Amino acid sequence: MSGWAPTVSVVMPLWRARETLGAAIASVQAQDFTDWELIAVDDASDDGSGDMAEALAEHDPRIRVIRQATRGGAARARNAAIEAARGRYIAFLDADDLWLPEKLALQIPFMEETGTALSYAGFWRVSGNRRLCIEVPPRVTYRQLLHGHVIGCVTAVYDTEQVGKVLMPDIRMRHDFALWLDILRQVDCARGLTMPLAVHHRRDGSLSSSLPRRTLATWRMYRDVEGLGRAASARYLLSHLANRAAAVTRARLR
User: Fold this and answer.
1) Sign of the alpha-carbon dihedral angle for 185, 251, 210, 219
2) Backbone torsions φ then ψ of 93, nearest 5 degrees
3) What is the pLDDT of residue 205?
4) pTM above 0.85, yes or no
5) Element (H, E) at 183
6) What does the alpha-carbon distance between residue 14 and residue 50 come to, in Å, rounded to a whole number?
7) Are 84 and 132 spatial neighbours (Cβ–Cβ below 8 Å)?
8) Are 38 and 62 in contact (CB under 8 A)?
9) Using an 8 Å Cβ cutoff, are 103 and 111 in contact?
10) Element (H, E) at 219
11) What is the H or E stretch that residue 21 is in?
12) pLDDT given for residue 254 in this prediction
């Protein structure tokens, strides 16, 4: 499909994702909105994930696979896909998560109609047998986002015509959080669709499953990427933790 420019480029990093990759890609192929390309970046997996992605790409020309020679982490893999993207809109889906079929069909027209440069949506968080509906606010500014990371990467989409191709900082965790903050320096706010449009799986042993690791990563992002002082970083971190706890409580009560 040489010369083809899709509306949406879907960024998918792969590492040891063979068990979940098929379902993740199928959830993109099942989208009601069909003008997309999927760029899967194999981050030097040793379980055949890259081979599986290439096999799936043989049957769908909208899928492209990039193979990394050495493992560089999720931020580098996502950045490789962003740099290779041909679409106006950049969307994100990890190889162990899922989109609901209506996601792009609702989110892209919403962005076009509102002129939104960065959008997001609610999502389901699944951990073992527990399933939580994560609610999101209808809009968030840069300052508000510092107080709480409300944009799930599995739902985020940004418009390159408005903000250019913005890359993630090369840090192990919270690179997505830092990217949203970077974009929000350019625009007045991000806007959200409050209904759930995706499923995020939080798996035991993953980086995101550990509260201490998440907390330290958030602190380091405030300090090293945002360049905030200790007092400001501590204030935002405490607010961030309180807001995340409140969001989980609301989800449990629903």
Assistant:
1) positive
2) -150, 120
3) 54
4) yes
5) helix 175-184
6) 7
7) no
8) yes
9) no
10) helix 211-220
11) helix 18-29
12) 52
Q: Cβ neighbours of residue 213 under 8 Å, at least 6 residues apart?
A: 173, 207
For residue 54, count other CB atoms closer than 10 A to its CB.
15
Residues near 66 by beta carbon (within 8 Å), at least 6 away in sequence: 39, 40, 41, 42, 80, 81, 84
> From its phi and psi, is residue 178 left (phi > 0), alpha (psi between -120 and 50) or beta?
alpha
pLDDT digits (tens, 9 = 90+) for 139-162: 999 999 999 899 999 999 999 999
DSSP state of 224: I
Token pair, residue 220, equals 């380091």
254: which 2 tokens?
């629903």
Task: Please state, in angstroms and rounded to a whole number, the distance separating the CA atoms of residues 16 and 145.
Answer: 31
- Name the residue with tokens 């625009």: 187
pLDDT of residue 136: 94
Residue numbers of the chain with a pLDDT score lower than 50? none
Residues 6+ apart with CB under 8 A from 67: 42, 44, 50
Tell me 239's DSSP state: H
What is the token pair recorded at 223? 């300090």
Query: What is the DSSP-derived secondary structure letter of residue 205?
Result: T
119 closest CA partner among 101, 132, 137, 131? 137
What Cα–Cα distance (Å) separates residue 79 from each residue in 8, 39, 84?
Answer: 16, 11, 9
* CA distance linking residue 163 with residue 90, whole number of Å: 11
Tokens for 248, please give them.
């989980």
pLDDT digits (tens, 9 = 90+) for 27-58: 999 999 999 999 999 999 999 999 999 999 99
Integer Cα distance of 181 and 65 in angstroms: 28
3-state secondary structure 95-133: CCCEECCCHHHHHHHHHHHHCCCEEEEEEEEEECCEEEE
